[in-house]
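Putative dehydrogenase
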Amino acid sequence: MSEKVKLGLIGMGAIGERILHQFQQHGEFEIAALCDRNVDRLNKFKNELPDAAMYTDHLNMLQDETIKLIYLGAPPKFHHSIAMDIIRRGKNLLCEKPLANSVEEAKEMVEAAERAKIVHAMNFPMVYSQAYQVFKEKIQSGDLGKIKKVELHLHFTQWPRAWQKNEWISSREQGGFIREVAPHFIQMIHDVFGEMCDINSFVEYPEDELLCETSFISSMKLPRGIPVLFNGIAGIGQKDHLSFKVFGDKGTLDMVNWGILSQSTAADNGVIIPLESSDTSSLAGELLKAIKGDSAKLVSFKEGYAVQKVLEELIKAN
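Predicted structure tokens:
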């Protein structure tokens, strides 16, 4: 039996806890250490992980030479400084999205990771979902005919969402649903269609300059001139509703709330596409392949940098 890959996690918020459980389910990883500035948050995991080291300073964690992979789930404005520390130590790195808090920071992270020749990846879980694989295959197979337009609608009852309330998620500096949710869909659009350009964006902010956006509308262009529309709003009288829709001249495909696919034509009102219950690959599994030197399906920092460039254009209020 091969030796397990030791993993350290930095940032144990709601998403960090999800990542922890994903790696716990994979038999070839060992949770070696957790790091968070919030001691009470760390204490939550002590009974569950009695053998894991607990840190409030990531630099102390990085001194452990046996840890081969780090998950970085700290708030976005800390990604760059912590990631550069991780890269200097030569450890493989899984970073939460967005990659950084500016285009300049993201670019420096890409260059440093590539120079260090570490495995570097981003947490874009949709890459591994059956819903996205079917979505991508139907578009690329020509099922929809000529693509006419892509639309993304992000509607939130409230922001922050009830399960993700923390100090930074509602801040204008590094939070908001544009930064937190839109990157998933930007990455998927880039993967299917190529990178977006000609970005125009209008963002509405509240009077309190510390708080994030309340709504936005943005237009972009894909290669071959295909138009893209993003439309988002929070603080409305309806349940959260996310719709990622691709319009073709033969059919329309809609991904609703991350995992429900429907396809329609001019002759019907849409049919739900059945999906398999299990996914064929996982982020943990693909990271293990990469660490072992095998070919793996990962979203690289370079792709994260491309997402960051779009993201920063969306946030700019014209």
